[in-house]
Design a protein that fits this description.
mainly alpha; elongated
Length: 114
């Protein structure tokens, strides 16, 4: 679980820093959010019991930590609605990474047993 929190925090902050370097005054569609599937996939690979739960809980625990770090840099901050939308989509993509690993495990497990 701690690995999931740390990995999610690192990727989250890298994505936000990249958005800051982009120079946009408003948040727009951000394909770099897809990078957040990586911590979800790694959380799923390390947890065979409940991979989706570990990935989503790790993301939910790490998001407040990331928000505290982001608010230390006022130029990274956006208004509340945009921040909520970004954070929600970040948790979604993290969970999607875990679901992808679960799907691949199911497909390859069934083909391996035949």
């Amino acid at each position: 679980m701690t690995g999931s929190v740390v990995m999610y925090s690192i990727v989250f902050l890298v994505v936000r820093y990249g958005m800051f370097l982009g120079g946009d005054a408003t948040m727009q569609a951000c394909p770099t959010l897809l990078m957040l599937t990586i911590p979800g996939a790694l959380a799923a690979l390390t947890s065979k019991e409940s991979p989706l739960t570990v990935a989503v809980l790790g993301a939910l625990l790490a998001t407040p930590i990331c928000l505290v770090i982001i608010h230390c840099y006022p130029e990274w901050c956006y208004d509340l609605v945009q921040e909520l939308a970004f954070d929600t989509s970040a948790v979604f993509w993290c969970g999607s990474g875990a679901l992808l690993v679960m799907l691949l495990r199911t497909i390859f497990w069934h083909s391996h047993n035949r």
